[in-house]
Amino acid sequence: MNSEPGNFYGIGVGPGDNELLTLKAVRIIKSVDCVFVPKADTKESSTALEIVKDVVADKRIIEQVYPMVRDKTRLETAWSKAANEIKCEVESGNNVAYLTIGDPLTFSTYCYLLQHLSKLIPSQNIHTIPGITSYNAAACLANYPLIEQDEKLAIIPISKEVSELRPILNTFDTVVLMKVAKKLDEVIKLLEEMNLIENSLFASYVGFNNELITHDLNSLKGSGKGYLSVIIVRKPPHT
C-alpha cells in the first residue's frame, strides 16, 4: 500500500464519438490504475465505457450501478456508496478515473458524486477534466451556429410542464433543450404554436452509430426518439 494517496479524475468523454475525446482525457485514462464507470440499473452496459473501450483495454474496470429513480434517499445512498468505493482506491495510493458522458459539470450526475467526494478526499487530489457536450457537437455537425455577437443563450432541461418553456423561448435568442425524453411530442407542439419549428434542430445519440440530426421535427412526432437527445431552438433573424 502506497503511503501517499492517489489522485481522482472525473473525466468527460464527450457525446459518443471516441474521436471527440480530448487528448488530456486519453492521456489520463491510460495512466490511471483503475477506471470507474457509471451504469444505470436499467441498462446492460455503460455508455461512457463504450466510448473509451479502445483506450481502457488493459485497465481494471469497476462498474457502479445507479438506480434510475427520483427517490432522494435511494439516490443519496447510491452516491455515498460510490464515493466511498472511490475513496478506498485513492487512499490505497491508486490513481482513479471516473468516466461520464458529455461534460462532467454540465447536467451530469457526476456533480452529485463530486459533492460526496469533496467530503472524503482532499481537494488537491480531485481533478475534473472537461468534455465536449452533445449540444456543442450537434451544432457543429449541422453547421448551426449556437450564438452570435450579443445574442443570449439559455441551456435548460425540460421541466414537467412544457408550457413553462414559453417565456424562456420568448426571452432568449437561442435555447438548448436538454433531457427531452418523453416530452418530445409536447415540445414539438409548443414550437409549432410559437412559429419556431422551422428554426429548430433535433439531435439524438450524437456520435453514435444510430445518430440522428434533423431540422424536420414534425417527422419525429410519435417516434419516441427523445432519449439522449437535445433540441436547439433559434429565433428567426430580424428583418
Automatic annotation (TrEMBL):
Q: Which family does it belong to?
A: Belongs to the precorrin methyltransferase family.
The molecule here is called Tetrapyrrole methylase domain-containing protein
| Species, as recorded | marine sediment metagenome
For this UniProt record, the keywords arranged alphabetically read as follows: Cobalamin biosynthesis, Methyltransferase, S-adenosyl-L-methionine, Transferase
Q: Domain (Tetrapyrrole methylase): give its ranges.
A: 8-214
Q: Does Nucleotide-binding count among this protein's keywords?
A: no
InterPro entries named in the record:
4pyrrol_Mease, 4pyrrol_Methylase_sf, 4pyrrole_Mease_sub1, 4pyrrole_Mease_sub2, CobI/CbiL, CobI/CbiL/CobIJ_dom
Tell me a GO biological process for this protein. Answer: methylation
Write out the pathway annotation from the protein's UniProt entry.
Cofactor biosynthesis; adenosylcobalamin biosynthesis
CDD domains associated with the record: Precorrin_2_C20_MT
GO MF, one term, reads: precorrin-2 C20-methyltransferase activity
One Pfam family recorded for the sequence = TP_methylase
